[in-house]
Amino acid sequence: MPWFTQEALAINDSIMGKAREHQLTLTKPPGSLGALEDVAIKMAGFQSKVKPALERIFISVFAADHGIAAQGVSAFPQAVTTEMVKNFASGGAAISVLARQLNAQFEVVNLGTVFEVDAHSQIIDARIAAGTQDFSKEPAMTEPQLQQALQQGQAAAERAKESQAQLFIGGEMGIGNTSSATALAAAHLKLPAQDLTGLGTGISQEQLPLKVALISQALALHTSQQPIEQLQNLGGFEIAGLVGAYIRCAQLGMPVLVDGFISSVAALMAVAINPSVRQWLLFSHVSAEPGHKKVLQALEGEALLSIGMRLGEGSGAALVVSLMQSALALHNEMATFAQAGVSEKASS
Length: 348
Fold this sequence. Notes:
Largest sheet: 4 strands, parallel
CATH topology of the largest domain: Rossmann fold
Helix content: 40-55%
Number of domains: 2
Mean pLDDT: 96
């Protein structure tokens, strides 16, 4: 049995029940804090503590290039992937700023940029190849390359566990990766490319039909319904890295806060490969990418925010951590009706 099909750890349902009961004793109408109550209850189940904590965050950004980019599906050249890897490490990217704000552990895993990147303490050099192949013409990667990418995700999750992280956030960077993610989502959800394809990094409306046509061509070429083969044929090294990380986090009993469209497609594939992973996933925000809502619906995922973000990098998820921390503070520190001497709702 491959490591990525092994069952995830079970969540502590008994503690979740006790956390739910605790919520009913707090000085507020039941359900009045909406999704914040659900976050606190789930975190209690994840940690097997009625009053959970969220102080140690681990953020791993996976980067790689895509062969499809040569077809003009992005507004930016492939050199940007390499340049952004450097920017992540030097602290200038959005996710770098948010990681500092959260005092999170932060790393960049280079799985396959076209251009080499100078050594840096925050960059893990795990280049599999100089990007994937053009998936509109051939499989994006070989089976051994897919296994390498999954294993690098596994390793990131294990580093997070070793650091005693209470939450894992996976980010991604790769010019052309909205095309890859859209192709994966379309293949797995059995939807036409035009239903899911968006502008990605900011291509023009005139470029959009080309992107749709190339993804449609790829879907006609790669017809396997097996999720692991779909990932090999249509995915990117960084997307496969996220898949491996999400699966391993669930096996280690560590919750994952999923970022935007590309990260959610990785979550979709992780759950398709190993359904037991789903219970360990939380969803941070709804991206402006048109396919994101459909992916979340397929995952039965309720995102905590919808503010038009579409940057990727893990930035939306990092932003939502403070919301989760507020949810736990309310759960842990609000007075109960008995403590505050406040009358409860009259029984009918």
